[in-house]
Design goal:
By secondary structure, this protein is an alpha/beta fold. The chain contains 41 helices and 17 strands. A hairpin with a 2-residue loop joins strand 5 and strand 6. The longest helix has 22 residues. About 2% of the residues have low confidence.
Length: 920
């Protein structure tokens, strides 16, 4: 087509909103209306120097050499459409999008990222709306038609999953101005990752997958296929297309770095921000969190944890609004599963090539051409190189990963030279294991060919990098991959080269660059590491590096930079898991024990109680020869067990630890911790005298060791025990000293805990103002740090303070907030307190049966935990019970109390929260 603009082009795309329904309702009227629609659009485009290069149904695609002309055409077209009479049909509502950029014109059509971008911008709009990209806005903002303006709609994530786009809306007196929110990824909750490039082709597959997931009978859809077929990218794009249809969002869970099926629940929970609750399994927490939600869960690389597939079935059974889109090399074999085999990209027959215009339409050729053009700006598909490109794509079976690896080599080889190099190496490397799919062997050959292009130093680094799971920072690469200053390895140069050759990806981060290897490539790199004979040495260096990092983090997690170190350890969690797995299956049990022991505070702060205990228990089961490391691991597993309410295990760990601590260099510090652990167990069981003895001994050892944090912790615990024994003066002394010391330290967890303990004592003494002030300060510390794990204690105390002051509505609001948080955390003890608080607030509302049920439910929860309520706590409840008890016959009161006792944890909370006190 002569005259098509080239270079920088402004594209104008349109389509008719709701055209399918209009066709179904009155095909004849719609046909006539579209004829007029086409005339009006053509007139507007051609009047302003534009070229219509394609029409698809009711969609128009036009190109303009000038951005201001494109805007005037869009404005004229909309004004014409809006003023048209449309006598035989409803008015046609046309949406319009404009985007400016470079594109390759071939045979009367355009190709390139700008076309993808304008199409996605169009899909975000509504009928009658004209949207502009930032690139177009910058060219027209000073040359708008008279009376026209631009409304800034903000930076939005379009459904192409590439970087966000700053979107503007064209305004004019004759155009509608109010529209629904843009249909972008920002509308719904999601964590879909930004992709470096748009998805090329696959439109049919995306539509098929989306339509399958819209079916009522398809709850689990698994995209199957070998590594490198593009399952992940296809799943992400399909999820983006469906995002408007899931009220509670779309969430992506990467499983490629996992090897342990038991980690599936915690990985899914982390992606969904579901916290692990004390006394409950993480699976139960997931079921509760997802129970009533309309949500799409994308589980990527499920073959890594396929033995955990039953969990997916359980979640689907318990959560009617949940749908799962999985990618896997093997089916999940879960009831109700639908499989979708991801096919290779469309390929031409290299023995009978079509004309080049037709050849460009094949997905594999498009992918190679676009990626090669990105690597080498002057690359283009021509009659001379087209046969070689087709041959390359055919030899790689149309596998996207293999094609991208080949296209990245265009900087070194022409397609013809590339074909020659693909000859013998690929033929030699296709004879892999016969139980592997053919495409898997072909992909391995493609990776092997890319590996063969590396020099010796790059090959060494490539193999060594395979020990990292979930990526790594430069510091880690230097420490693990070049610990001895290998003369063959130049870390910076070789890393840069591996990135340049698409063997490695670099993720840009604010704090540090991170290097990530695709999992399929990492599999091959691991094989090369085994062949090199240095696998065990590199894995040991990896584990030692992570141990040093964990040791540093363990101390920093109590200091001002705590948040930074938590994020740092979060990033390295997959590497920690990989190192622990290796130490436990090799002869490195002591190293694993030390690593697990150093990580326990991180696991505790992040709520990974179950996972942390499992690693620690496995390490403890394999090593008993190193007293210091074993004692620390026992301390860790004991406190995690205590947090989960597993008092028997906590006691067993403390008792074994005490017997070992006499042989460690840190005897006083370690013994003090174990004694506090034993004191905690006794305190929960109501054995206050015994608890006090343990705390006193712990305090003496802590002072001897000059461990101020332990001193403060022991003092506060002694205050609790003294108070519950009735020695209030002694309790006050302990509290004052412990609180003063806590304020001197930088440990905000310790300070918040001290504030709650001391504040609770003031409440029990009747000083509600001082008690509330201290608990407000504690709540502020927790909220400031985003720590909801202990906030419920402060909320409970604040609610009781309000109740004692006579502010029933404020007390109820705080107890409801406390109860909701306790449900999230699985904290049955504080939940029991909040249930009784709500019962007391309800005691004046004329609902004595409700009060009895709440008290009965609270009593049952306390018995389950094993907590013995202190007399002064019971005294707070007595006036409210005395006021309401006479209003109900004894038999009915007892029956309601028994009904409350039979309520399970979730049922009790749901009952308590179903309405506010007094109907408010």
């Amino acid at each position: 087509m002569a005259g098509l603009p080239t270079g920088t082009v402004t594209f104008l795309f349109t389509d008719v909103e709701g055209s399918t329904k209009l066709w179904e309702r009155d095909p004849e009227a719609m046909s006539k209306a579209l004829t007029r629609h086409d005339e009006l659009l053509r007139d507007a485009v051609e009047a302003h120097g534009g070229f219509i290069f394609k029409t698809v149904g009711d969609a128009f695609y036009a190109a303009f050499p000038s951005a201001p002309d494109a805007v005037e055409a869009a404005l004229d077209a909309q004004e014409s459409l809006l003023s048209e009479a449309w006598e035989e049909s409803d008015p046609l509502r046309v949406r319009t999008a404009l985007c400016t950029g470079t594109a390759e014109e071939r045979g009367g059509d355009y190709f390139g990222p700008t076309l993808n971008r304008v199409a996605r911008l169009l899909s975000a709009g509504h009928g009658g709306q004209v949207l502009l990209s930032l690139s177009t806005q910058e060219l027209v903002r000073d040359q708008l038609p008279p009376g026209a303006g631009l409304r800034d709609l903000g930076v939005r994530r379009l459904k192409d999953l590439v970087g966000p786009e700053h979107v503007f809306q064209l305004t004019a007196p004759d155009l509608p101005s109010s529209f629904p929110p843009l249909e972008t990824l920002d509308v719904r909750l999601n964590n879909l990752p930004i992709q470096p490039t748009p998805l090329l082709g696959r439109e049919r597959e995306v539509a098929e997958i989306a339509n399958l997931l819209r079916r009522v009978d398809v709850r689990l859809l698994t995209l199957t296929g070998t590594g490198g077929t593009g399952k992940t990218r296809l799943a992400l794009q399909s999820a983006a297309e469906l995002i408007d249809e899931f009220e509670d969002g779309v969430f992506f869970v990467a499983l490629a770095s996992l090897s342990d099926p038991e980690l599936l629940a915690s990985t899914v929970a982390e992606a969904l921000s579901v916290s692990e609750s004390a006394g409950r399994t993480l699976e139960e927490d997931l079921r509760d969190s997802l129970g009533n939600k309309e949500l799409l869960l994308v589980l990527d690389n499920f073959e890594q944890v396929v033995d955990a597939a039953p969990l997916v079935g359980e979640l689907l059974s318990a959560c009617p609004g949940l749908r799962v889109l999985a990618t896997s090399r093997v089916p999940l074999h879960v009831y109700g599963e639908h499989e979708y085999a991801v096919r290779p990209l469309q390929l031409p027959d290299p023995r009978d090539l079509p004309p080049i215009e037709t050849l460009r339409q094949y997905e594999a050729i498009r992918l190679f051409t676009e990626r090669a053009h990105a690597a080498k700006a002057d690359f283009a598909l021509t009659d001379e190189n087209a046969p070689a490109v087709a041959e390359i794509c055919a030899r790689l079976d149309g596998l996207p990963l293999a094609i991208e690896l080949a296209a990245a080599r265009i900087k070194l080889f022409s397609p013809q030279a590339m074909c020659a190099r693909l000859g013998d190496p690929l033929k030699f490397l296709t004879g892999g294991a016969h139980d592997l799919p053919e495409r898997q062997r072909t992909l391995r050959g493609a990776i092997a060919w890319s590996y063969a292009l590396l020099d010796e130093g790059e090959q060494i680094l490539f193999a060594r990098l395979s020990v990292f799971s979930g990526g790594c920072a430069l510091e880690a690469v230097e420490a693990v991959c070049d610990a001895e200053g290998d003369s063959f390895v130049d870390i910076l140069e070789d890393l840069s080269s591996l990135i340049d050759k698409s063997i490695l990806r670099q993720e840009a981060r604010a704090e540090e660059p991170r290097f990530v290897m695709l999992e399929t490539i990492r599999d091959y790199a691991r094989e090369r590491l085994e062949i090199s004979g240095e696998a065990e040495k590199i894995r040991r260096l990896h584990a030692e590096y992570l141990l040093a990092l964990a040791e540093q983090g363990e101390s920093r997690l109590r200091e001002a930079e705590e948040a930074t170190w938590l994020e740092h350890l979060d990033r390295e969690h997959d590497n920690m898991r990989a190192a622990l797995s290796w130490t436990l299956r090799s002869d490195e049990a002591e190293l694993g024990l030390r690593l697990a022991g150093e990580l326990w505070r991180f696991w505790w702060m992040r709520g990974h109680y179950t996972e942390g205990r499992r690693w620690l228990e496995e390490a403890l089961a394999r090593d008993g020869r190193t007293p210091a490391a074993r004692a620390k691991a026992l301390e860790a597993v004991g406190w995690l067990a205590d947090d989960q309410g597993d008092i028997d295990r906590a006691v067993a760990a403390a008792e074994e630890g005490l017997s070992l601590s006499s042989r460690t260099e840190t005897q006083s510090t370690v013994r003090a911790s174990f004694l506090r652990l034993l004191g905690s167990a006794a305190y929960v069981r109501g054995e206050y005298e015994r608890a006090a003895r343990f705390y006193e001994e712990s305090l003496a050892l802590s002072r001897e060791a000059k461990d101020e944090r332990s001193v403060a912790s022991s003092l506060l615990r002694l205050g609790n025990a003294s108070s519950d024994r009735g020695d209030y003066e002694r309790a006050r002394e302990f509290y004052e000293e412990g609180l003063a010391l806590s304020r001197e330290l930088a440990d905000k967890d310790l300070l918040a805990s001290a504030l709650i303990s001391v504040g609770a004592e003031f409440l029990l003494q009747g000083d509600y103002e001082r008690g509330a002030a201290l608990n407000e300060e504690a709540a502020g510390l927790y909220r400031e740090r985003g720590n909801s794990g202990h906030l419920q204690y402060a909320l409970d105390n604040l609610a009781w303070a309000a109740l004692m002051r006579g502010d029933r509505r404020q007390a109820e609001a705080l107890h409801r907030e406390c109860l909701a948080l306790s449900r999230q955390l699985g904290d049955k003890l504080v939940a029991a307190e909040a249930l009784e608080g709500l019962a007391c607030s309800a005691s004046t509302t004329g609902e004595p049966e409700r009060v009895a049920r709440l008290f009965g439910a609270a009593e049952a929860l306390r018995e389950e935990v094993g907590y013995q309520q202190e007399p002064r706590e019971r005294a707070l409840r007595e006036p409210h019970l005395a006021a309401v008890r006479p209003r109900l016959a004894e038999a009915r009161w007892d029956a309601a109390w028994a009904e409350g006792r039979r309520l399970r944890f979730e049922e009790a909370i749901a009952y308590a929260l179903e309405k506010a006190v007094g109907g408010s």
